[in-house]
Design brief:
single chain; 172 residues; mainly alpha
Length: 172
Amino acid sequence: MSSLVQMSPDDLAQAEAFKEQGNKHFSAKKFALAVGAYTDALRYNARSEVILCNRAFAHLKLENYGSAVVDATTALEINPTFVKAYYRRGSAYLALGKFKPGVADFRKVVSMCPRDPDAQAKLTECEKAVKRLAFEAAIASDTEKPLLETINLADVVVESDYSGSRIPDTGI
């Protein structure tokens, strides 16, 4: 965490004005305009975890998941206890299919806000995905051919006293 930078009251006022403009755009579902307004606000107050988190949310709505991760991570560097930043970053990781880091972020959210049903649901979703991927990896096969095609019938030894059905010498 870097040292605190003193900002002028004018800079803080400008940042707040652009943040409010971004909030209005966001409420109107104009997410790209909201990102632009939050970016303008950050020019005046680059150390605002709230503005960064708002921009992360707008990026999520635009499906700019990588940008959402960056903004939420920066917000957490400023304030490691800012629960909304963990939630935003976890949501971006979930959308990106990066379930293990999503689990870590949602566990943090649930530990800070144990009664948040949405965070609990997303944590459960990430945990299930991690288990599913581990299961799929465990049963995955390196061979491309079905097992039946990998058996050479000429190599199969049949006991001489076997009296059951036989495959003809000409094959199947």
